[in-house]
Amino acid sequence: MPDGRANDGSVATVDSRTEARERRPSKEPHVRRVACTQCRQSKLRCDSATTPCSRCERLGLTCEKDARYKRVSKKSKIDDLEKQVQHLRTVMGQVQSPPPNGVPSALTPVSDRSPAPISTPPTLPPLSDATASADGSRLASVPFILENNPIARPGIENTPINPGPTSLSVVGGGVAVPRHSRPAARMIRAIDSTALGLGQIDSLFQLFFGHYHPFFPLLDPSQSPDQYYDICPLLFWTIISVAARRYSEDPKLLMILSRSVTKLAWDTISAPPLHICAVQALLVQCIWPFPSMRMRSDASASFTSIAISAAMHLGLHRPAHAHCFWPSSDSVFASGNRPDRTKTWAACNIVAEYTIMNCGYPSAMSCFDWSIDRACETGNPYSLPDDLRFHLIVQRFCHRITKAMSGNVSHQLGLPSENERYILINLLETEIDSAEGQFQQRMTLIDEIYLWATRLYLRLFYFFDSSLADQRRAGVLKAYAAAATLISKVVSADASVNLLAYSPIFILRMLCTVGSVLFKVLSSSFSQFVDANTGAALFNSTISAMRQCSVAVDDLAMRAANILEQLSKTTAKTDEEPSLVIQSRLGASIFFDCLWRFKEKEAHANSAANTNVNPAGTGPIPQRNPHGDEQMAEAAPQLSPNPMAMTWGFDDFGLPWPFDVSSIMDNGVN
């Protein structure tokens, strides 16, 4: 019994304490105080409740609060200043001294420049009747709505959002260069050991917004270089790097910036959350990547995936509900009005869908949701300017194509059954034709190219194996017709608006697909249904166009063009139908199949070269007669020497997409 009384007393005590806590008034929610940047840098206490704080007000300093601010030690500051001063003196001397005679300015009109040492595509002959019949009336060129201006859109009913103070002036070649009232740069900028003067920064910004920006209008042309740098240094240097691709005053600047800006990008990624401008910088680097000679160094797919994730982390996929992802105290991360957030989210999906198309991935990177559908419409708060809105509509079609052709879980490659595949292709193509009729009066020359690229992407699925021979043959010829029309439009656009010199990476990858389709049909039994001379001219124009996209020696564009050209020279015409060894990369399978065949030919050529070794295994390899190449080629075409004299292996292909032989064999090749 004594134990029972003790227990009753302890229980009563606990109950009384619980009741007391319940009656106690709840505390106010804890408010996190953030010191201003000036006090944090000096390691001093900050009365951040007032704005400005007492210390900044007393010393006349700018009082700013930034949750992402990190204190920089004086030693690191001094080290950076020492590095910059050594190069700023040299840069200032170059800026003050006039450029030597004969050095063209980066802003010189295209018509006034000396022609580049690249062969001009020949005038394309008209397509044959057989080719035209394969595509019907759609093979005829869609009339060009604009002859000289790919940006302005006559007859647009809706008004673009925040067009800004712009007056367009046409530069040689038909490129519309916006003359914005952009404030000039006021500070010299440096990254690592590279410094740029004020004149260089202004010239590079004018080059970017005059020639590159119109192809993908994501950024604000009215912002000054200093504003871009203050908001996001990565975006500032990304703009500088893209403009350096065709910066004639310093041709080496692009390769110099490549390592530093890429390192800055990864450093920015490693410190989340990312600012919305950092997301835009990653997208711009995916659209105009640094030149690379190895597939391992291409970070476009990684940057695209990171940009999508960072955009969702910021709540860009819900433009009207930014407060649900970041509170008002962290507005630095949720910055940007609704149109900017919608535009950035749309750009994420456009770039992601292009990556999916050209790498042969399933549609897991992009996210075409409710906000994307509203952005494709007009007359609502989510509507985009027409130049970007049509681009988004086209990529929404590509997203539907990818999902339809990779969603069959009962097939190892995700492809639908044969009958279902042809039905889906016909339905999707009907929708593309309907969209073309709806937007035809509003489309620019560039829009037509993107629309035909979508049509070609759909028709690529005719190349997959099928027991329906007649339907497959008709579909492959339709794909050939789409490729022929597409390269014709690209050549016309390049003559009108200098497309290839400043085009995004999308155009190069598109040309790789066009060249693969033309090669497949012309080297197969289906060549009897097309004009061989016209097809050869189209193929040569494709190779020439790919080389005009090159910005560095032996970059991806140049190597891809060399591979397709060499493959066409060493491949004899067969009586077999075009087939695919690689079928695990959706629409990109046709180009990867060409790479696979090129690798086989290279291995065969190396094996044939090894037969020249002394059978006894001793002594030097006999020297080949330099004048006997033609005789050997006539006697045994498969043993003809490789004119590219490649010393690099298959893993060192400088191609825009990763190509792993082992992974393909593991996934299964039909």
Explain what the structure shows.
- Helices cover 51% and strands 2% of the residues.
- The N and C termini lie far apart (85 Å).
- The longest helix has 29 residues, at 469-497.
- The protein has helices at residues 2-23, 37-42, 54-59, 74-96, 129-135, 198-212, 225-231, 233-243, 253-269, 276-287, 300-313, 338-359, 370-375, 386-406, 418-439, 445-459, 469-497, 499-502, 505-522, 532-548, 556-570, 589-610, 629-635, 661-667; strands at 168-171, 175-178, 189-191, 194-196.
- Strand 1 (168-171) and strand 2 form a beta hairpin.
- It is globular, with a radius of gyration of 30 Å.
- The chain has a domain at 115-150 and 407-610 and 632-670.
- It is mainly α and 670 residues long.
- Strands 1-2 form a two-stranded antiparallel sheet. A two-stranded antiparallel ribbon has the order 3-4.
How is this structure best summarized?
With 670 residues, this protein is mainly α.
Strand order of the largest sheet: 1-2
Mean pLDDT: 76
Give the end-to-end Cα distance, rounded to a whole number of Å. Answer: 85 Å
Series of H and E elements:
HHHHHEEEEHHHHHHHHHHHHHHHHHHH
Largest sheet: 2 strands, antiparallel
What global shape is seen?
Answer: globular
The strand count comes to 4
Low-pLDDT segments, ≥5 res: 98-179, 616-670
How many helical stretches? 24
Radius of gyration of CA atoms, rounded to a whole number: 30 Å
Helix and strand composition category: mainly alpha
* Approximate helicity band: 40-55%
Strand content of the residues, in percent? under 5%
